[in-house]
Specification:
5 helices; 237 residues; 2 domains
């Protein structure tokens, strides 16, 4: 009888673990919408210099960044810009991300895809601790392990998605086009993109000369979360 009762208690505990873990199995998620990066939107800026045409579209505004990256990028200090470059001539060009800059006098710091992805990655430890506060002690190891595993999978998905969407370094062949995102560090309290200009430099592989294309960024305004004012502790009297 005692053995049977112990088995019943064990099965009940296991069922409780499953029931408690199920709602949290998807607590860390990353669900960006499908995005046609080869078709700039109606607000994209177009600029042409010789055989090269460049289309620039901002994705820092909250609605657009959540659609593309499932995160409010401006709140994370990230400025994502979608580029499409067309080579309408008969000569190949070399375009590298390091030759793409954004700024107004002082250039913004560029972020590689992993640096940008890191800023929106989910916090496995924080989520695990949060769950451990609301589940019974006997379920903590299972729920926490599941949460960390799920969060790690999501963070890997984020890294892969950012890398896949990044503008590629390399040769833009005659008659072809390339598109993708470039990322820059932006002040989290910046209310808009006024005054910022994107400049792209491409190397003509036939002549060795450099072609430069520059255009102001499309307009965008953000809801800024102001940081609370710093309050100094009163000195001892």
């Amino acid at each position: 009888m005692k053995t049977k009762k112990k088995l019943q208690v064990r099965w009940l505990n296991l069922l409780l673990v499953v029931l408690l873990a199920a709602p949290f199995s998807g607590c860390a998620t990353y669900t960006p919408c499908a995005l046609r990066m080869d078709q700039p939107g109606p607000q994209a800026k177009e600029c042409v210099n010789g055989d090269l045409a460049m289309f620039v579209e901002e994705f820092a505004s909250t609605e657009k960044s959540k659609r593309a990256f499932d995160a409010a990028m401006n709140e994370k200090g990230i400025l994502p810009i979608l580029l499409k470059v067309e080579n309408r001539g008969e000569v190949d060009f070399r375009i590298r991300r390091k030759d793409i800059t954004v700024g107004s006098g002082i250039p913004l710091k560029p972020l590689n895809p992993e640096e940008a992805a890191k800023r929106i990655k989910r916090n496995a430890v924080g989520q695990a601790i949060g769950l451990s506060l609301i589940v019974p002690i006997i379920t903590i190891p299972v729920v926490v392990a599941g949460t960390i595993s799920q969060t790690n999978k999501v963070n890997k998905q984020i890294s892969e998605d950012f890398s896949a969407k990044t503008y590629p370094d390399g040769i833009l062949k005659a008659g072809n086009e390339q598109w993708g995102f470039v990322f820059f560090e932006m002040d989290k309290e910046r209310p808009n993109l006024d005054g910022l200009q994107l400049t792209l430099k491409a190397e003509n592989l036939a002549s060795g000369e450099w072609v430069e294309i520059a255009t102001p960024l499309p307009p965008a305004a953000f809801k800024v979360r102001k940081s609370p004012p710093h309050q100094e502790r009163p000195g001892k009297s």
